[in-house]
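Revision sheet: structure tokens.
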Amino acid sequence: MVEPLFPADSPPIDRRPAFGYGMTIAAALLFGFNGAVSKVILASALDSLRLTELRSTGAAAGLLLLLVAFARRRLRLRRSELGYFVAFGVLGVAFVQLFYFLAIHRLPVGIALLLEYLAPLVVALWARFVVREDVRRRIWLALALVLGGLAGVVQIWNGLTLDGLGVAYGLIAALAYCVYILLAERGVQRRDSVSVAAYGFLFAALFWAVVQPWWSFPGRVAGRDVSLLGHLSSWHLPLWALVLWVIVPGTIMPFGLIISALRHLPAIRVGIVAMLEPVAAAVLAWVWLGESLDTAQLAGGVVVLAGIVLAQTAR
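Predicted:
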């Protein structure tokens, strides 16, 4: 007899939608702030793939240590769960970062984000036509508003020349984000969110260790002081401190919040609320890095918020 992927006697989930919304909004704000910190790091001595490797490995180490210290029994891993966590870690956690960074090598960051955030639309299509769930009309209208607002935030009309391969990478990133959301939603139905995140990042880290062996890492740059750029250009911090920020408040906390939110909200709603990230990133880039934020971008942010509010009224 084949053992089920998750134990059937798991306790029922106490769903609290308000907690789910709060955690998703907090995660989006942390992700948005992390974008500015990552830009500072990428302007110094690390490339995007190395930074992603550090994020995955650091997050895996932090979460696993947390479980060892406070909830060792949650580390139990059944053989039947290996396939799930390999898929979640590689196709979800690792690929959503890999193809996003590949996309921003060929496209403006805002356009790459817009492509990646097509994911909630794909999740809604999956729910409606594959799982045969009832998706309310307001959800479709909310998605249209959010995507339109994001287009305003990133100013998609502003002299854009799209690179075909970059677009392909962005669309693959969106599919990987769908895989991440749907697999995470499945995982937290039977396991606690911390162990789901920990094993997801562990298998992502193992994937990166194969792609970029650790012995080739340029360790000498870790202690280098780097400028914070923009309005904080006169301030400097060691590179290791910025990387630590990316790992803990920029990765462990928001990914954990997203996965925890899926215990209280459906994947479609989590995906829509998480679309606050590009808005938060644009505002922070304006305040910190001195990047432009004009009337059209502000209007786009308002439309995004309107779409999110509309989605929450669809019971």
